[in-house]
Amino acid sequence: LATEVLLFTALFAAYGVYRYLYTDAFSQASRGLATWMGGVNTFVLVTSSFTVAMGLDAITRGNNRRTGLLFGASILLGCVFMVLKGFEYRHHFLHAELPGRFYGGPIAGSGGSMFFALYFLITGLHAFHVVIGMTVLAIIGIRAGRGHFDAEYHVPVELAGLYWHLVDLIWIFV
Asked: In sequence order, what E strands does the chain have?
């Protein structure tokens, strides 16, 4: 978890530096983002964190089946997040809001291109972590449903929950 925090901290620092260097371009480029979609995605991931927390609570009470179901609900919410992110990416591709030489947006110079390079790097890496988190939740949820954990031994459930909460917390910063 610490290495994930360091990785995203470095990316956020890079964003801060380039936002300082290209203040106007970053400001203009960010206007093209669908903030309502970011809000919906935040709600979806925060809700998924709640279902993971409820799953952990269920395992501490010895209710393995409920843990598996709640982790499944979190996975479905993760899928909703990914679908919405796909629609958002599609919008950027259709409007040539892309990094590097593929940038064809309305902002002249390299600032708009740099904004979208960092945007796709940070959100794409986050999406990759969401997929990893969904995979971990699926494995642990299935194992919980099969009775591999109980009220006394549920460390893997806690660790899966911590990873998922970190992914959600990173999204809030994104």
From this structure: none
